[in-house]
C-alpha cells in the first residue's frame, strides 16, 4: 500500500542528504524538533502544511518541487508512466523554460 507520509518523508530526506545537511541543521532552520523531523522523514508522522512549508524553506526547496517529486513517486508505484512535462493548466509563467510538450494528468498512460 502507498502511504503518502512515507513518500513525503523519503523525498524530504533525499533532499536533505543531497545537500549534505544534518537533521539538526534542517530542524533548527525549520523551527521543529529534531525528533519530530526525524519521524516525518521516516514516514511515522504526518507533516501539516505549515510544517511542510517550514521544512521546504529550511531546505531551500520549493514546496511545489517536493510535492511533484512525491506525486511522481506515487504514480510510479501505481504503475503509471510519468511524462517529463508540466500540464498546460499549471504551466502559466513557465513558457520561458521552453516546455512545449505538455500533457494533462488524464493523458498519463499505465506502464506495461
Automatic annotation (TrEMBL):
Domain HTH cro/C1-type, chain residue ranges per copy: 12-66
One example GO MF annotation: DNA binding
Annotated InterPro entries: Cro/C1-type_HTH, Lambda_DNA-bd_dom_sf
Pfam families noted in UniProt: HTH_31
Region (Disordered): 91-112
PROSITE patterns: HTH_CROC1
Protein name, UniProt field: Helix-turn-helix domain-containing protein
The organism of origin for this protein: Paraoerskovia marina
Amino acid at each position: 500500500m502507498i502511504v503518502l507520509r512515507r513518500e513525503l518523508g523519503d523525498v524530504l530526506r533525499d533532499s536533505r542528504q543531497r545537500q549534505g545537511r544534518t537533521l539538526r541543521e534542517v530542524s533548527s532552520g525549520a523551527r521543529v524538533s529534531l525528533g519530530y523531523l526525524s519521524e516525518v522523514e521516516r514516514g511515522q508522522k504526518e507533516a501539516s502544511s505549515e510544517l511542510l512549508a517550514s521544512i521546504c524553506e529550511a531546505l531551500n526547496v520549493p514546496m511545489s518541487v517536493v510535492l511533484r517529486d512525491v506525486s511522481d513517486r506515487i504514480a510510479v508505484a501505481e504503475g503509471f508512466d510519468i511524462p517529463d512535462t508540466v500540464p498546460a493548466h499549471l504551466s502559466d509563467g513557465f513558457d520561458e523554460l521552453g516546455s512545449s510538450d505538455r500533457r494533462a494528468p488524464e493523458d498519463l498512460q499505465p506502464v506495461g
